[in-house]
Each structure stands twice: as C-alpha cells, then as structure tokens.
Amino acid sequence: MRKSYYYSTYCEDSFVVLNQMQQPNPLKAPSFIQSLQFILNPVGFLEKVHQQYPDIFTAKIFGFTGIPVVVVQHPQAIQEILTNDRKKFVVPGHVNKILQPLLGKHSLLMVSGEQHKRQRQLVMPSFHKERMQSYGQLIVNLTEKVMSQLSLNQVFSACSVMQEISLQVILQAVFGLYEGQRYEKLKHLLPLMLGLFRSPLYNSFLFFPFLQKDFGAWSPWGRFVRIRQQIDELLYAEIAERRVQPNSDRIDILSLLMEATDEEGQPMTDKELRDELMTMLVGGFDSTAIAMAWELYWTHHLPEVGEKLRQELDTLGNSKNPMDIFRLPYLSAVCNETLRIYPVGVMANVRFVQEPVELLGYHLEPGTAVIPCIYLTHHRKDLYQKPKQFLPERFLQHQYSPYEFLPFGGGVRRCIGDALAMFEMKLVLATILSHYKLALADHQPVTLQRQIMFVGPGNGIKMVMTGRRTPFKIPQSTSKTTQSFY
Ligand code: HEM
Questions:
Q1: Residues 15-39: pLDDT tens digits?
Q2: Topology (CATH level 3) of domain 5-176+250-468
C-alpha cells in the first residue's frame, strides 16, 4: 500500500499519534459531537468555529472514523493545495466510496491517480465552454415548458420546479434523451431514486454499508436496488442502441463520450459510460437546482436586484440570443454572488497530504487530511466586505482569484459541470424574470439544510406566480447541432 493510503487508514495508531502532534487548532469536543453538529447544521457549525479560528482548524467531522481533518479557509493555503493537486496532495477515490452504490466503481469520483487523469481527459472536452452554446435554446425552451405548467396564484416550491428543469436539462443535454418511453421512464425513476437518499434512513445506509441488505422489493435497500436495476437496464439499452446506430449529428454529452478515445485509442466501456452518466446526474441535478432556487430567492427577496436585472435584459431588445444573455455583466454578478453567499457545496473534496508540506506556518505530515472550506472562504471579511449581505456589485468592482471565489472547487478535481451549470443558471433566471411575475410566498428567514451531498434552503423556498410578461424571442438557429434536439 502506498504511504499516503497507509496514513489515511484511520485505525492505524501511527496516523492518530502523528496527527495529534501536528494538528493546527484542534477542536476539543468529542468526535461524535463534532460530526453530529456538522451533519445536522453544517453552516452553523462552521461559522461558530470560524469565529475562533478564522484561517485553519482541525475538526473530526467524519463520523465514527474519528479522522482529524484540517479545514482551510485562507486563500493562500487554498492556493497551495489546489495548485499542487496530484503532487503534494491527492484525492483518493476511496474517500467517496460511500457513494459507490449510486455511482458505480468507474465513476470519476471513485477513481484516483492515473485512472482519474485518463477519465477526466475523456470527459472534459464534452463539457468545454464553447460546447455549451449548443444547449442554449434547449435550456430556454425547457424553462418555458416547466414554468408554463404553473397556475397563477398557486404556491409552489422553487426548489422542486428548478429540480424539474435541471433534471430535464440533464436528460436531454447529457443523456441525449428527449422523448419516448425510455425518456419518460428515466424521468420518473431518476428523481425517485435520488429522492430516497434525502431521507435520514437511506443516508444511514450509505454511511453504514453493513445495513445494505436486500430483503426483497419491500425492504428499503431492496427497493433502491430494484429501481437502480431498472435505470441501469434503460441506460445500457440506450448505449447498445447508439453503438449499433451511431449518429454523428447528435451533440449530447453521452454521444460525445462514446466517440472519445484515450491516448491509446481506447474508448470508454459500457460500464464506464453508465457510471459517468450517474455521476453527472448525482453531481449536477440537485446542485444546479439549489443554485437556481437561490437565484429566484435573492432576486425576489431584494426586488431592486430583480429590477436591475430586468433592465439589463431589456437592453438586449426583444430578440435575445442565449450567448448575449450569457455575457451580461450584472446577470453574471448575480449568479456569482448567489454561489458566493450560499455555495451549494460548502466544502471541496478532502485531499490527503503526499509529502511534508507547510500550510500557514503549520507543518503537515503525509497522510494528513485537508479540506478547502468554500463557505468560510466566501465569508471572510478581509475578502468580502459585509459578507452576509447579497451585493452582486462586488463582482463588478473586483476580480476575485480562484482561491478567493471557488464555488466549483479547483485543481484536478474542479467540477466538470461548471460551464453547464453557469450557462443554465443564467438562461433560466433570464427566461423566468423576462416572462413571469413571481413573488415570495413565505417571508420567514431562510434556513440552511443538508441535501445529500449539498446544502440548500430548508423550506424549498415557497413562491407564487402573480402574472406573466411579454415573452422575448430567441432567434431560431439554423445549425444542424441545435436542430438535432427537436
Ligand atoms: C451550481 C452547480 C454546481 C456546483 C456548485 C458544483 C460544485 C462542485 C464542487 C465544489 C466539486 C468538488 C471540486 C473539488 O473538490 O475541488 C464538484 C465536483 C464535481 N462536479 Fe460539480 N457542481 C455543480 C454542477 C455540476 C454539474 C452540472 C455536473 C455535471 C453535469 C457536475 C459534475 C461534477 C463532477 C463529476 C465532479 C467530480 C470531479 C472530479 O472528481 O474529477 N457538477 N462540483
């Protein structure tokens, strides 16, 4: 076993002794209390500790493992970590092992080292910023379709409606499915499966693998296994069909992945394709939906922000091109500020030190677990004046470095869906603000709550549609790539 993996085995005495000597600002509470506080109220826990240790501290938040993890929220230390990923720091795939029943063992999140490098090289070109343009019209049309199903004056949950949009974007742009039986079945089964893991019962199955017992269709784990099997059958059938009938006109991400080959000319196997699709679903579905629900919250909680945005959209006239919308400065600032104030992923992936390093004057030995804390970095008073206030203008006045503003993490593990998520966030918000009049239905202060891997609004953000505006027109594209969706 390699050195770093040796140290990360929490039951090894040497690991514990070593870290007790080196820990920067260790928290004193017992590990189960720290873990419980972090699981139940991640942001409350982090904010409390931040007051005492604003740059770096050591917590035991990994449940029964008791592994100490150095939590870092100083841009200089974050830069050191993210610019030395794969050299001084490594994200071993096994840290995400609890997600294996959902994602499969070939998932990008499950692999490390050379295997991770190969898979990223295969996947990344499909997510390139320029490619996202092809999905513009699709996103606007889907937003229209979902929003038009809402009734006037009826209360709805912004999170649920944004999930509907986010799921359909993934099904169409990523999976390449936009109609027919397979599409309908997956549209029903995928949220059903992910919905199971919103309950504490199913979450505990992930944390305690010995509970993962299939006692038939009516047992909780058996129910999950059967839904997953149905999903797998549909995905493998789709992959098989495309292998027999390849269509070079298709621009969905699955088609691009099927064409991709590694340095040795090898394409992805069916199992790798299936696991990557599930990873994109789990990584992209809730995260983007939560971010879009927050955008609706802020633009209606602070009507002056919504109004300023509408005025900016009006400058584009009646016929709006998705790329012109994407480039609007105030819209970009609103999206950035949304991801700054409540980043959907409060922490990046945990990294393990590979060779002795210094972080902010602390000496860390190989095997030490470190984690860049996105939320606390985004709330530093020395970087962001009045950090608790939603002020999009700060992004117009100042350019933040990737170690000061990092909603998508960074280094070799940076989110692969960042361009798609930003594109979707901008087009969905622009479409809704231009076409519909909405209002918040609940004026209670929002609470933050853990949602599987992410943190989102506790009450789902209750809103109501109060009217419609004159819709703007998206110029019809004549390119074959855009038409192939319809
Ligand atoms: C607003 C939306 C999103 C946010 C805030 C977000 C955030 C993140 C963060 C913080 C990470 C960890 C990065 C690190 O450890 O340095 C990550 C990784 C990842 N994200 Fe996202 N994400 C979003 C949307 C998406 C979408 C749309 C997809 C795919 C369609 C996606 C797929 C992934 C994958 C596959 C990884 C793992 C990358 C790797 O380990 O190499 N995410 N994301």
A1: 433 444 578 999 999 888 888 888 8
A2: Cytochrome p450 (1.10.630)
